[in-house]
Amino acid sequence: MSAAAAADAAPAKGGKKLLLIILAAVVVIAIAGVAALLLLKKNAHADEDDWDAPPATQASRKADSSATPTFLPLDTFTVNLADRNAERYAQVGVTLEVENKETAERLKAYMPAIRSNILLVLSQKTSVELMDRSGKEQLAMDIMRESVRPLGIDLAAQEAAQADGRRPRARVHNPIVAVHFSNFIIQ
């Protein structure tokens, strides 16, 4: 092999190595980009699922399975319903399930305002609305919303945004895990 041929062969081998290194780098960058895209997409779906889940489900995801639930029973509510064709009333027992004992104590301090808000919600309902399960579930959501209002927590804006298919600007922390009915009589 002549000296000129050897000189031409050396750059060709170096050029092939450089081309392989560049090609390998491009493949690694492409794989990293696809992995990042998949992770971002997965996290976005997880956030959407959390926004669509009912409040009780969200709270149960966060709650420690070994933690004992804290319940705050309220005195029974007796209220005239908003029926126009007949005089009907409801007697409803409500128990709030809250995050912890400190939250229960805080809610007790606001109990007169909480009871007033719940009475106003109940008095706006008709017997037809409260007869089926969906009406009772809506009442539980209304009671939850009105129970935290005296604490300065506004769940109404969050509910309105979700109803319109929009995402609220910030997630509102709700210290009430669930609303339970201990008795429910309509006459």
Description of the molecule:
The chain is α+β, with helices and mostly antiparallel strands and about 190 residues long. The chain has 2 domains: about 1-50; about 55-185, Tetrahydropterin Synthase, Chain A (2-Layer Sandwich), CATH 3.30.479. It has 7 helices and 4 strands, in the order H-H-E-E-E-H-H-H-H-H-E. Strand 2 and strand 3 (about 90-100) form a beta hairpin. Helix 4 (about 110-125) runs antiparallel to helix 6 (about 135-150). The longest helix is centred in the N-terminal third of the chain and has 50 residues, at about 5-50. The protein starts with a helix and ends with a strand. InterPro entries: FliL. Keywords: Cell inner membrane, Cell membrane, Cell projection, Chemotaxis, Cilium, Flagellar rotation, Flagellum, Membrane, Transmembrane, Transmembrane helix. This is Flagellar protein FliL.
